[in-house]
Write a structure and sequence with these properties.
This protein has nine helices and ten strands. With 280 residues, the chain is α/β, with parallel strands linked by helices. The longest helix has 17 residues. InterPro entries: Glyco_trans_8, Nucleotide-diphossugar_trans, Xyl/GlcA_transferase. Its main location: Golgi. One of its GO terms (molecular function) is glucuronosyltransferase activity. It is a single-pass type II membrane protein.
Length: 280
């Protein structure tokens, strides 16, 4: 993937950009409010949020955004219970439970006229303009369906209980989806077949949707293009930031990808947690 340009064409300030998240419960919405604010602070143009929600989060999200009175922001919610049966048959040892698995069927949940979407985990904080991400598919072949960042931890190279991956693998905390291409592909058949095959070996998922994306990339590498690591700078307990090999490293998105989240006592987590506090 060519370097993402920092020069923003005028059209970027006029075009709707779509962001999707899966949220469950009042606590998650409260924690994610700093992420929402950081996106809004750094993004120069109109935004459309797509929230896949349970009953609790669906109660509060529209009210939260209404109190901010943002004329260039639209919010759509989708009932997770209508889609759970598509993925809840998959054994999953990850703490995200069924919520992480919903990422696999985002192309079927969002409206058909939404052709591209940026999919975020809720344990992120945006540190700079993310607009260049929305050009991630420019100049890519039709086979490219997902733009995703490298995993900064050695999990897929060292763990015995790991699904297939290419090298260190990918981290799915930030993924840009070309929904139009995915819907014209065999994506549902591909991920389901890969899942059934690997469950015969591993019996369960360990890193939820991330295991899916890595297994599919192992067999279909042309479906994936690489995002710069600064758009998913991971702060998990076994993450190795030195693996972010950008020459001019200015992190745009920090990712608290451990069960402890911002309570993890590392220098980097403490540093970026202060960025979160600025939006609370």
């Amino acid at each position: 993937l060519p370097p993402l340009s920092s020069e923003l064409p005028k059209s970027h300030c006029e075009k709707d950009h779509h962001i999707a998240m899966v949220l469950g419960g009042y606590k998650v919405v409260r924690q994610a409010s700093a992420l929402f604010k950081s996106i809004l602070y750094h993004h120069p143009g109109p935004l459309v949020f797509h929230f896949i929600t349970d009953e609790q989060s669906r109660e509060v999200l529209p009210t939260l955004f209404a109190t901010w009175n943002l004329p260039s922001v639209r919010v759509h919610t989708y009932d997770i219970d209508a889609y759970k049966s598509r993925v809840d048959w998959i054994p999953n040892a990850h703490y995200s439970a069924v919520y992480g698995l919903m990422k696999l069927i985002i192309p079927d949940i969002l409206p058909y006229d939404t052709e591209e979407v940026l999919l975020f985990d809720t344990d992120l904080i945006v540190l700079g303009d993310i607009t260049p991400l929305f050009d991630a598919f420019n100049g890519t072949p039709e086979s490219a369906l997902f733009a995703i960042g490298k995993n900064l931890s050695p999990f897929y190279t060292q763990s015995k209980d790991r699904w297939p991956a290419i090298g260190r693998g990918y981290n799915s905390g930030v993924v840009y989806l070309n929904l139009a291409r995915i819907r014209n592909s065999m994506w549902n058949e591909i991920w389901r077949a890969a899942t059934e095959e690997q469950l015969k070996i591993f019996k369960r998922l360990y890193l939820a949707d991330q295991d899916f994306f890595n297994t599919v990339s192992f067999n279909h590498p042309s479906m994936f293009v690489l995002l710069p690591c600064v758009y998913n700078f991971q702060l998990g307990g076994i993450s190795q930031p030195v693996n972010c090999e950008q020459d001019d490293r200015h992190e745009k998105i920090a990712h608290f990808n451990s069960p402890q989240k911002m309570k993890l006592r590392s220098n980097l987590v403490v540093h970026y947690a202060q960025k979160v506090a600025a939006y609370e």
